[in-house]
Structures are given as C-alpha cells and as structure tokens.
Design goal:
- InterPro entries: TPR-like_helical_dom_sf.
- This protein is mainly α and 336 residues long.
Length: 336
Amino acid sequence: MNTKSANLPEFTLTILGKNRTPIRQKIFDSKNFILPGTRVGVENREPKTRKEKMDAWVQAPLSERQIEIMGMMGQPNPFHHFAKAFDTSQLTLSIPNKGIKIKVADFREEALKAAPEGTKIGAAFDTYAKAQYDRSYSDLVSDARNKVISRFEAAFAENLDHDPMNDEYHTDKEIFLHHPVWTPQSSIKEYKLLAKQGHVYSQYLAGVFLASNAGGYKVECVEYLLMAYENKHPEAMRVLAEFLNFKNDYYGAVQCALLSIDGGDDYSMKIVREVLGSTSHQMMQTNHGVAPLSLVIIETLRANGFDSILGEHFSEFNPDPHPGIRIADFLNGAQS
C-alpha cells in the first residue's frame, strides 16, 4: 500500500448509475479521529506508522446516550476531540462590526495576492487580516470554529437512540452497522449547513441521518458522506456502501466498501462478501454468454482501477478468471 496520500490513486465512482467527480483515495490515519493519549504495542507508545494509525481510530458516537454507554464501559469519550475536525478552507469568517462574511479559501487567495513576493504564507494571512479587519487571522478562524462547534453541540443534543421495540430500529439495524438513531428535521438541516462550513462530524452525521429512517433514506446522503470521506472520516465510506447495498446499487456498494477496506475499516469486508454472495445467483448476458452478476461486478471493478485493492484484500479473486466479462452499460440500471 502506498504511504503518501499524494501517491494514492483517484477513482471515478459510479453511484446509482451516475459517475461522480473523481475522488482521491484516503487512508484513515488522521489524528482527528485518534484520541490523544492512544497507546499501541508492547512498548505502550503512541501510534507512529501508518498501519498503527489506521488501527487506532475509534467509532464516533451518534447520540448522548451512546456517550453515556461509553463511559459506563470505561471507554474514553471521543466527542469533543472529533468535534474539532474541520476542512478549514470551507469555514466562513465573520468580521465583527463590519457585516462582512468571507470563506477562508477566498480570504487566503486575497491575502496571497496582496502579499509581497517571498512572504511566508502564515505571515501573509495575518498581515492581511490585521490590515483589512483589525483582527489576527488566528482569532478570526478560532471564533468561526467555536461558533460552528457550539451550533453542532446544540444539534447533537437532539439525537436519540431508536427504541429496539420500534420498527424503525429493526429496519435500520438490517442496513447499517451503527446503532439506529433519530434526530428532528431541524437538526438534519443544521448538520447540512455546518457540513458546508467544513465541519467533518456534521458531514458524517448529515450523511448518516439522510441515509437512514430519520432522513427518509435520501440519495442526498451521498454528497455528505463523500465530503466526510474526503476529510478522512473512517466510517463515512462504509455507511455509504451499506446505503447503496440497501438501494440495490451493488456495484456502487462494492466500490465504496473496497475504498473503506483499503483505508483501514476491516468491517467493510463483510459488505463486499454479502453483496457478491447475493449477486452470485443473479445471471446477466455478457459478451461471453450468461454470467453471474457477481462476476460482472468483479470484472467491471478490475476495468476501473480496483484490481490492486481486490488483489490485496480478496486473494480468492486472483488470478483473473474471466478477462473481458463485463457489460459497459449495466451500471445505468442501478436503482435510485
């Protein structure tokens, strides 16, 4: 496996019959999802290698009740640590007493244009902020981050675990690994707004709720789960794979599950095996005659850059048993 993100390949995912914007593969080694103080190995040291970091992330709680259960089980609470994860470039800065709002990405572009050649980036941002707004750049970003986190915490307080006696619980439990949860539409709306401010936990929760009973199993979840994946949230691509399997988009589900596995989420191997098992009895006409849909999916994956991931994690598919068996347009039949 490659060790530098810059060297990781890009994939054009086909989801529900439509090609998405190319996305670079992510590895789940971000410190944003590894609790400070985590120790590994017999030396009881902090994770250093990429593999150690990939194994060190913890699941994100979806409700205050789940946080309570973590406490009762003696597990550390990751909530406040996870809530600090941002794609800062998407954050909107508010300039006090001037009625000005500007996205960080735009602010940075303006600051770099105004800076003399050779100015260090940090100095360029701070000089521009003080000249234009009489505030330091770090203070503007800190204020904006704190406002988003405060809004997020208020929305999170509305999340509730589904009662196991309810039908909604059992429906979602059949689809997803995570514990079924509910939140009001007002909170889903807030998560969507905060997601577009670069708040990664909100991106994940917007996707989770839109994908599940609380949000009506909406395809809109795809946008937010891909946002979270791009920011290395280690559970987002798995949730998307589960949702697509539920929607009978088997090729989409396996693509997402393979990226999740290669990023460091071993559970997603179950999704791949489940999808290929359920499609092994569905037959399709191919250029080599009738073949199981599972074989068509595998060969289409190979043709679209997933051969190395398949080879690394599913050795039973090596060597290539039937080269050339695929249907170029079978993906267009995915259900939405």
